[in-house]
Amino acid sequence: MPHAGGETLRRLCVYNGGFLRQQRLRRILKLAGWRVSLGLPRGDDHVGVWGQSPYAKRGEAVAARCGAPLLRVEDGFLRSLHPGRDGEPPIGLLLDRAGVHFDARVPSDLETLLLTHPLDDHALLERARGAIARMRQGHLTKYAAVDPTLPAPEPGYVLVIDQTAGDASVIASGADRNRFREMLYWAREEHPGKRILLRCHPETQAGHRKGHFRKGDCGGPVSMHSDPVSPWALLEGAVAVYTVSSQMGFEAILAGHRPRVFGTPFYAGWGLSDDEAPITRRQRRLTRTQLFAAAMILYPTWYDPCRDRLCPLEDVLAQLEAQTRAWREDRHGWVATGMRLWKRKHLQRFFGGVQPVRFARNAPEARAMADVDPASGKTPPRLMAWATTAEDAQAVRVEDGFLRSRGLGAELTPPLSLVCDPMGIYYDPTRASTLERLIADSPLLRPDALLRAERLAARLVADGLTKYNLAGALPPLPDGHRILVPGQVEDDASIRLGSPQMTSNAALLQRVRAENPGAVILWKPHPDVLAGLRPGAVEHPGQWADLTVNGDMAALLGQVHEVWTMTSLTGFEALLRGAAVTTLGAPFYAGWGLTRDLGPVPARRLHGPRPSLAGLVHATLIAYPRYRDPLTGLPCPVEVVADRLAAGPLRSSPGNRTLSKLQGLLASRAGLWRR
Known about the structure:
Elements: E1 10-14, H1 17-21, H2 23-31, E2 34-37, E3 46-50, H3 56-66, E4 70-75, E5 92-96, H4 109-116, H5 122-138, E6 157-161, H6 168-172, H7 177-190, E7 196-199, H8 202-205, E8 222-225, H9 231-237, E9 238-243, H10 247-254, E10 260-261, E11 274-275, H11 288-298, E12 301-304, E13 309-311, H12 313-330, E14 334-337, H13 341-351, E15 358-359, H14 363-370, E16 382-386, E17 396-400, E18 417-421, H15 434-441, H16 447-463, E19 482-486, H17 493-498, H18 505-515, E20 520-524, H19 527-530, E21 547-548, H20 553-557, E22 562-565, H21 570-576, E23 580-583, E24 596-597, H22 613-623, E25 625-628, E26 635-636, H23 638-647, H24 654-665
Parallel strand pairs: 1-2, 1-3, 3-4, 6-7, 6-9, 7-8, 9-10, 10-11, 14-15, 14-16, 16-17, 19-20, 19-22, 20-21, 22-23, 23-24
Antiparallel strand pairs: 4-5, 5-12, 12-13, 17-18, 18-25, 25-26
Helix pairs in contact: 5-11, 5-12, 15-22, 16-22, 16-23
């Protein structure tokens, strides 16, 4: 039976119901070339078992009786937001034919990799360095539902890591509660007078399984720590780390520690830890980058849940970044104001994954709904408002993103991206915004982040993607030096706030012709204006423009030399395609040295290191917006949305299309429907 890659699937005989119940597990195995099946193995069939779980003995017995090879399956070192016992599927698996990574009694495929692979490829090690930095920056860990905003304990403590009772890696290390108490003893003995934090396991915090430490182990300088603080933040403040076999010991190595290890995990024995139980066959000395490259890039089988395919580690990091951002921002809930009725369903899908978004009629009602009794210990929900209607200075402002849809917002096409800005909003240069801060900080981006931005920009250009992705053939364009002038909606907030000296499309056209008498000027009316939904029509544009064009914006940008604009996003899209851009207002991309600016650009943008185009792209399209995959409903990275937009139309519902036509009829009384 061929699978997605065209190869014949190998039969994997299983005797654990989890393989049959868990759809994601079966899907990853299938993509990796395995067909989960019942029955006895024959021929080159394998027997699949889950690590060294209690049910693994069934499969081991069958494999021994039939002479069939084993495939041991385990969760990847990055798994999900929450533990599997909460019902969340894994984002990757460890498939090992030799053993299991946490049991040093028998060499595993991972140990063999670490012993024999050269691990000297420059590109591989650069990927590893970038991924380590990305995990630290994004606070990504095996169960990533941690809150980086929670205050970590005062630095200077010794971190002793607990694990769940009965954990297979603890058993494989020959450890028990006495071993954990011995570890605590040595932590106290070797660091007299230091505070000692006993870090609880996430499954213990969630009430699924007990740990090894008890309340009686605390007292004096020793205390339990169970808050969902990021492990990376805890490691940052620790002076020493003690573990039996926890994955957090691996993360401690990545964070620069040399942990004291009382078990036999995969990361012990390579010269990066102090080991109480040395593993004699592990004599090779590795760097932390080499250890990471083998354990996180070469060994696991990673899965992209949006595109339903196996993928490299970088795609998993991007997916987890999107999911953790959504969880961290939404976990306490939202109260929203200024949201039109048709948008509420889509906002619920974007922001209501943890708790439903509640909608208020105005800012005072929103504040009342968000009020929480301080004695309850609960964190109040956050306030959000559509940016153009925001009344409360404390509210996070929400707007459409820059890769929005196939179709206009004014036609009620649902967005694939939204931006959330607690500082201001990107189109308002009168105050700083989060996007402005991201652009200003972009010269500090790592090489891997800039490379991602460069690849994204190239992808958008190659696939002809823009904000609305409207189709339409272009007429033959006159020869000469072509300048595109994109029309805008004249009552748009970006004009009112960002272009006070140039406020009409007619005045813009007149200025462009006056300063470029010999150029071929192409006038492109805004789609909302053409549709009769918003103001901004120009009577007799031919007195300044050589040609009025409509149709595919991406194709048009590929045929022009310059763009002149007040504040249109077209200027940013032109920069991606190598065209020169002149601004008459102060759009978010102006003032950074990438455009010629004739408008009132804020002085704060004119100082400091100059962003590159890749830095601008990273800030604008990767770091600033949130994206939602319309097919799976998951928060997703920008690359998934680019895939969806490139694949074809994503139509709005018939009801929304009917409503958009009605609002067109009422365009002259827009206040009735734009609420």
